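Give me structure tokens for this 534-residue protein.
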Amino acid sequence: MCTGQSILSKLLRLQCFSSMKEVEQVQAFITKTGNFNSTSLITKLVNFTSLSPLGSIFHAQSLFEETSMDDPFICNTMIRAYARSVFPIKAIYVYNHMQESNVGSDHFTYNFALKACARVLKCVEEDDEKCVGFEIFRKGIEIRCRVLKLGFDHDSYIQNSLVFVYSQCGYVRLARQVFDEMTERSVASWNVMISAYDQVNDFEAADYLFDLMPQRNVVSWNTLLFRYVKFREIGAAKKLFREMPERDAVSWNSMIAGYVQVKDYNGALNLFHEMQIAHVEATEVTLTSVLGACAETGALDIGMKVHESLKEKQYKIEGYLSIALLDMYAKCGKLNSAWEVFNELKVKPVSCWNAMIVGLAVHGHSEEALELFSSMEKRNEEVKPNRVTFIGVLIACSHKGLVEEGRQYFKHMVKKYLIVPDKKHYGCMIDLLSRWGFLDEAYQMIKTVPDSETSSVLWRTLLSACRVHGNVELAEVCFRQLSKLEPLKDADYVLLSNIYAEAERWDDVELLRSDMISTGVLRVLGCSHIEMMK
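Here you go.
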């Protein structure tokens, strides 16, 4: 019979865990036997839960807070894990805790913390980017001062991370200064500096360094590939991808993401299939792009296979992957599965709430969408609605005919959350008002929209509503306004012609058809497509 001590001895010899179920069993054992002081075992638990694809960073955080906030190695592990997660700012919080609590730090601490600083800027809202960028730059300077004080300034990993931070903050000259001060430059150093120049579109400097490189690796070629993808030069990206001396998962990810970026979703899915045939292991980034392509094409079967594969591997679905999976199910109309993913998430970033609210609203579940929004507002300390959230809310109001509620939500967005309405918000409001017969109010709102003269979508929305509600005079106003903005389309002529016909103004119908012929506008036949079973 095994004693508690012999079991503990076996656990300490265990190289790693294979699933969260094992982790939970070990936790139950050490809780029961009072072995939470076993630093070696806690280290293994935190290491697996925070860094393994099968782990859970939120579980790791719980372990960390309960047991090991004063252990330097475990603190470093948490900084490293958060730095590559969807919540990199939490890595900075752990770093700050280490400094405030005098937890010992080493060169790994500063390397991971600098990487976290760089990653923060990739995960902030566009509205906050300038402010956050300045704060992160200050944090980077602070970390560099500590690095200099402790004598880690010649560590190549730290120097590379500094170049990365400065480039992410837009300070490429400072990044180049650190690069020039390096006594030894690895291939990674060259790659990071070239990426810095690419980020500010200084391709001449980037190409100059690329040509100077003493040697190149797959990351070097990936940097060039990413440039083509960034600027939607898919032809050049595809050519380079096929001719690269070697490819890794990042190469495939960049190419798949490139297809998604230019809305060639079938190209993305075909390349993913090719990736599987080549036995290249898909990463979270791969699956996030693939699920995005599934969402846009309605390829629910592929998305479900990805989800089933993740379940079979006991992969913990969190971060960007959870958002992509939830969005895929919501856009494909499989709302039960979307709810399942949403409810299983321990931490729900605003993007998850948005995907669920918009998905419910678009598919006509207006009451559920508004209830979910109400629940979101009650968690104001955890998550705050943004502009996308209110698009979902207004769509829900429009589908249900909740005109007064829509007006109130629009005001609420501006007054409480200080969100400046954009064309999408105005479009939702105008759709709501015009759909339910408040045409004059919709017309007055269009006139208050900034740059409304350039927004033909809003005028077409109102023109369509004029036919539903038989408002000929306002339809003519909309038609004239559209003619000032851009060349009229065949659908505009047909719509106004139908409005005249329903009002029995046959002379105007003939005049409009004559005008359509004289201006050379041809009526395009309608069409639709379906996907056939293969």
